[in-house]
What does this fold into?
Amino acid sequence: MNARSPIGAAGDLHSTTRRSIRWQQQSLKALGVLERVEGARGVWQLTEKAKKGLNTPSPGVTLLGFSTNLGLALWGTSPDALAGLYEPIELVLTSPPFPLRISRAYGNPTASEFVDFICQVLEPIVPKISATGSLVLNMTNDSFLEKSPGRSTYLERTIIALEDRLGLTLMDRVPMDKFVEGTRSNAVIWHLESVRLL
It folds into this structure.
């Protein structure tokens, strides 16, 4: 990022990476997608208009979330996103909606509905994961039974279903602290059977 190269007729040294980022930033500002955060130097955010327009891609459309020289992130439904993807996948990192006691706009599935949904979404993905690839699911441990302090067993049911239906092997559970005080979730890491987590 800090590597500098001669730019322009004068040959002044500048970072081509920083120039590229600034160009994209200013282009997004001109399109009304980005705006400066009031009172903070060098901090940008999505405009309200852009936030509302980015919530749901059209059905059948896969969007590029971002790309680097290490790979890319796709935004869309798994069957659509994978339809034209022929390269092996090294990492699937996803955070499905958590089953909650209080229903949200996306509904509140039962444990068995949640398990079926996860297996259905992952079924076309698993064959495309490379032999050294990983599947990481961000799933909450804090899902409780209705009108009870008892915990839901959706997490355990999901793990067993992924093994039984898709042949995956649980490699580890990784507690993941969020920046929001009082919330915690578990990232569940899956690998193909021939791969060890080191």
